[in-house]
Fold these 4 entries.
Entry 1:
Amino acid sequence: MERTNILRSTFSFLSDLSEHNERDWFNENKHIYLEAHKHVIEFADSLLDALKQHDEISTISGKKSLMRIYRDVRFSKDKSPYKARFAGSFVRVKPQLRGGYFFSFKPGETIIGGGFYNPDPKDLKLIRDHLAQDDSPLRKVINSASFKKHFGELEGDRVKTAPKGFDKEHPSIDLLKYKSMYTFRSFSDAEVHDPAFLESALDTFLAIRPFFDVMTDFLTTDLNGISLLDE
């Protein structure tokens, strides 16, 4: 069954979980959780099928895309056992394609987007080397009307001054500072529950593709444009 939105009942469960984030309450209401989880899987399957018409994705199912609702509280001051949201990701086929699509459904805080969160140090160095040589491909994408319309601007953690090995006066220093690069679009609860939400989510994923294409080029070729995939 194709599901094109996230149900209000799913958000009602998440709101209740946020107020009663404890194991006894969760166990008493686990049947509601399982029903909500089932509906989110149905939506994720529909979104994955739609995305595969436009991109090569290695994620095999909506169920496999979802993150666990259970929190790892071993090293956290917050001992709440559950995450009051449903989230997941779709991974592109590596090493030919780079970038990952991300979604998180939560009352008042739903986001769709993706990018590169804490990339491998070797990959981050290669990205910075490409940017230092020529940042125009990435600037063209993030300054485009489509990118600004969907996401506003590029996000991510940055170093305070300059990364090691790069001049703080470099003309591309604003981009070189990034340690992670990602971007998201927020959706209201009304948009999430609307039957057109699947189309809006897919449109958002497709709007991030040009960013992924530039980053894929950076990560699969050396500074002379020679493929690194044959090494």
Entry 2:
Amino acid sequence: MKKVREETLAPARVRDRIRLTALLAMLAAMGIVLGKFLQIPIGNSIRISFENLPTLFAGVAFGPFCGAVVGLVEDLVGSILAGYAINPFITLGAASIGAVSGAAALLIKKITGTTEICKYLHIVCAVFPAHLIGSVIIKSAALRVAFGTPYSMLALRIPIYLIANVVAESAIIAVLLQNGAIRGAVRNLRSK
């Protein structure tokens, strides 16, 4: 009987993996549009955008690996589509945003003992270290080394990412995860 049950569950697992892969691809596509085409440039190498929102959502909702994959694909494909040179250190920063947000979300779930992470403060605690490590430290260092971006311009990244983006992106993720349909879909795909 157990053998029959495993055989009937196998197609469902494959179907759920395909659904998760498709969802992660859509999140990466959203990040490309938000980051490369719907941005507000400030100088040559600083811009205001919500490109990290889909990466953060993937990390918080599905874990560090999925978040890192979305960040990686988003940066590589987005750079090619926008005509930017691929900088592996900026790509590392993009992937680390998803990985750190996912790892922080898992740690918060473990500490609080909750099975869901949809409270605003919990999400802020996952998004803040992701932006600190990925956006402020890794990407800023990459911009300085690769393009010689002045420190005065890099200093603008601190309030943009650690205040404005953390507050706005955390609020958007919290609202999305409060939606019953999205929360149910995330729970179904995460548990498989």
Entry 3:
Amino acid sequence: MNRKLKKYNLRYEYLKLEHEEVEEDFWSFVKDFENHFDKYYNRPKKGSPTANERHIWVNEETGEVRHEPPPSQTYEEQAEQNRKTEEEKEAKRKEKIEELKSRPEKLKKLYKKIAVKTHPDRGGSNEDFQEVKTAFYDLDLVTLLKYTDKYEIDYEVEDDDVKIIEKNLKELENKIEGMKGTLAWQWGTGDTHNRKIVVKTVTKQTGWEVEEEDLPDDLKTKSEDPKLLDNNE
């Protein structure tokens, strides 16, 4: 593996480790955030919200993002929605198949070489084999190149490959920054001041004042500090 490729590989391994660590902390923060505030998001919002005050609703099945909960549907409407959802899934599946077919021939050949080396029937491990399969499916060239080094497979990195590698690294960085940009992360990592900002944001998004009993001890109003949750701060 040449020096430039080693640098990319080291950077990718670092980002993967950081992603794992951030993700572990993130879900811990999400759980704590939901324990304190989930009931406010589940209540009907008071008044008519402005665009900046709306809570985001995400349909986990379709990925649809709304600023208000979806309206109630009749059985026929729900059936039609389900049909459209299945059609969209099938269209995406076919699109992915075509995308895989259009992969550069040199990447297809590289994948086949690595797949042979990592296949459980050829002495490899199922874990490695699945990682290689996923890497090819996701166009994760950095992971594939890691195996070229491990199994001493010759592969000449060209300019087009560098673009893919840079894209892989950027996608991983975006995932990390995405988690760090959430209210849950601010809640889990922030100091008292930042956590008070989160409480005020929850109030803006839901329209409900957060009750004293739902706050952790460090944010509860104390007699010696009656302005702890002063909205003017």
Entry 4:
Amino acid sequence: MNTVTQKNFLFGGAFVWFACAAMGCSESDRPTLGMVVGTVTLDGQPLPQACVLFTPVGPGRTSQGTTDTAGRYALLYLRDIAGANLGEHAVRITTASEDNGGKESLPTRYHQDSKLIATVDSGSNTLDFILESQ
């Protein structure tokens, strides 16, 4: 994800949050969410500092998480609200960030040209991604 895309994504998320706050968004206004956690590995090793994005195939907002040093992530629907919309999602995983100058260490098949799909069910979901550099 390039810096412009990240800024647009962050701006869009901030806009949604402020719009919800202004309109009095409550828990009952939100869709039912499934909690999503998992691990991302690259060539058998944990992948730290990767952004994991779940975008619903149908309507709904993207949820995202960032992997820790052990490759573990947990998705957030909004800033302080964990989870993702129920149903099928297109998944993108990227290591490009402002912190590393926008350098991507993953093949495009995991982000720009991603064909990764995941299904989020109600309740808790553990969705691991085993990536290969070749």
